[in-house]
Automatic annotation (TrEMBL):
Name of the protein in its database record: Fe/B12 periplasmic-binding domain-containing protein
Signal peptide annotation: 1-18
Residue ranges of domain Fe/B12 periplasmic-binding in the record: 59-328
InterPro entries: ABC_Transporter_SBP, ABC_transptr_periplasmic_BD
One Pfam family, short name: Peripla_BP_2
Domain of life where this protein originates: Bacteria
Family: Belongs to the bacterial solute-binding protein 8 family.
Keyword terms, alphabetized: Signal
Organism annotation: Brevibacillus fortis
Segments traversing the membrane: none
Length: 370
C-alpha cells in the first residue's frame, strides 16, 4: 500500500492497513492449515499413528530398495537424503532412469551399519531426515531410529493391496497425495486394458509359467505368486497364467523343472548373466517345452513395481499374442516413462528397457521390436 503523507488521511490509512493486515493474517492462517506446515498424522503399515510435527516431509531416507518407485512420485532426486547402495547398484545403475537422472546414484548410501543390516543411526541423525521409510517386517531396525526421535513410516510388501497402500503412505508423508492418485490411475488404466482381454479367456487358454530369479550350476531359484517382482499375479487373471508354487520362492534343480515342463519361462532381469540363450543352449534344459518353442524371455529392465503396466503387458501379450493384435508395447513404454519419470525415451532406450538384444530370438518378441 502506498504511504499517505497528508495528515488528515493518516487515520484512514491506518485503518485501511490494519484491515489489510487482518485479511492477510486470516489468509495466512488458512494457508498454514493447508500447506502442510502444521502437524500431519499418518497411520502407517503397522497401524501405528506417526505424527510429523513439522508438517509434510520435505526429505526422507528410503530403506526399501524402491528408489525408482519413489522417484515416480517425486520426479526429483532433491528429497532423497539417503537410500540403499544395493538399490543404486542393482536396480538403478545402468538403467534409463539413471541415464537421465544420474544424481540418484550420488544420494548418500551410508545408511546401513558396518554389518550392512541394521540402520546406521549416527549417520541418519546427521542427515536429519523429516521421515524414514522402512518395511513393517523390519521392526528391529525401526526401533533404534524411533528411540532417537526419528519419525518412521513403515510399509507393507507382498500383495497388490500393499502396493496401493505403500504409494498412499508415500504421498501422505511428503504431501504428494494428488500425484499418487495420478500414478495409481495410470497403473489402473493399463490394468483395465489388459483385463478387458484376459478376462474373456477360458481355462483352456491358461498357461503354466516359471519365473526364474537366479541360476547357479544345476540349481535355480524360482519365485512364487505373491512377490511384487511378479506383479502379474497380484491382480487375478491379468496375465492368465499360473505358476507351480505359491510360497515366496523355491530352490529347484533341472530335473524338477523338467517335471514341471512350463509353457513359458521368464528370467528376472537382475539375473545379469542368464538370458534365454542359456536355456536354448543348455544340454538338459533344451528339452523343455518352453525352450523347444522358444518361449523363454528376459523380463524388462524397468522396475516391475513402479512400472506394472509394462510388466502386465509383457506377460499377457507373450502368453497370448493372438489376443493382443494391434497393441503397441513401445508406445506403452513411451507413455509410462513420460508420465512416471518425465523422460522422453529414445528408441535405443526402449530396446534397453525391453531387453531386445536378449529376447530377439524368442517367440513373438518381434511384436515388441522396431
Amino acid at each position: 500500500m502506498r504511504k499517505v503523507v497528508v495528515t488528515s488521511l493518516i487515520g484512514i490509512a491506518a485503518l485501511t492497513i490494519a484491515g489489510c493486515q487482518s485479511t492477510d493474517n486470516s489468509q495466512k492462517d488458512k494457508e498454514t492449515k493447508n500447506d502442510g506446515t502444521s502437524a500431519v498424522t499418518i497411520v502407517d503399515g503397522r497401524g501405528k499413528e506417526v505424527v510429523l510435527e513439522d508438517g509434510y516431509a520435505k526429505n526422507f531416507v528410503l530403506f526399501p530398495n524402491e528408489g525408482t518407485e519413489m522417484f515416480s512420485i517425486t520426479q526429483s532426486v532433491e528429497p532423497f537424503l539417503g537410500m540403499r547402495k544395493s538399490d543404486q547398484d542393482s536396480n538403478i545403475a545402468g538403467g534409463v532412469v539413471a541415464k537421465y537422472y544420474p544424481e540418484i546414484l550420488k544420494v548418500n548410501s551410508n545408511i546401513m551399519d558396518a554389518e550392512g543390516d541394521a540402520p546406521n543411526v549416527e549417520e541418519i541423525l546427521k542427515l536429519a531426515p523429516d521421515v524414514v521409510y522402512q518395511w513393517t517386517s523390519a521392526e528391529a531396525k525401526i526401533k533404534p531410529l524411533e528411540d532417537v526421535g526419528i519419525d518412521v513410516v513403515a510399509l507393507n510388501w507382498g500383495t497388490y493391496k500393499d502396493d496401493v497402500e505403500r504409494y498412499t503412505l508415500y504421498g501422505q508423508a511428503i504431501g504428494k497425495q494428488d500425484r499418487v492418485k495420478e500414478v495409481l490411475a495410470h497403473h489402473d488404466k493399463a490394468k483395465q486394458a489388459v483385463l478387458s482381454v484376459t478376462e474373456k479367456l477360458t481355462e483352456a487358454d491358461r498357461q503354466n509359467h516359471v519365473f526364474v530369479s537366479h541360476v547357479k550350476e544345476n540349481q535355480m531359484n524360482v519365485w512364487g505368486t505373491e512377490l511384487p517382482h511378479t506383479p502379474v499375479h497380484k491382480v487375478e487373471n491379468v496375465a492368465f497364467t499360473k505358476g507351480k508354487i505359491t510360497t515366496n520362492d523355491a530352490d529347484i534343480n533341472a530335473e524338477t523343472l523338467l517335471q514341471w515342463d512350463p509353457d513359458m519361462i521368464v528370467i528376472g532381469e537382475w539375473a545379469k548373466d542368464i538370458t534365454p540363450d542359456y536355456f536354448f543352449n543348455h544340454p538338459v534344459l533344451k528339452n523343455l517345452t518352453a525352450v523347444k518353442e522358444k518361449r523363454v524371455y528376459k523380463s524388462p529392465t524397468s522396475s516391475l513395481l513402479d512400472n506394472p503396466g509394462i510388466s502386465w503387458y509383457f506377460y499377457a501379450v507373450l502368453s497370448h499374442p493372438d489376443k493382443f493384435k494391434g497393441f503397441d508395447m513401445r508406445q506403452q513404454v513411451r507413455e509410462d516413462y513420460k508420465m512416471l519419470y518425465n523422460i522422453d525415451v529414445t528408441e535405443q532406450d526402449i530396446d534397453q528397457i525391453l531387453n531386445v538384444a536378449e529376447n530377439k530370438h524368442s517367440k513373438s518378441f518381434e511384436l515388441f521390436m522396431q
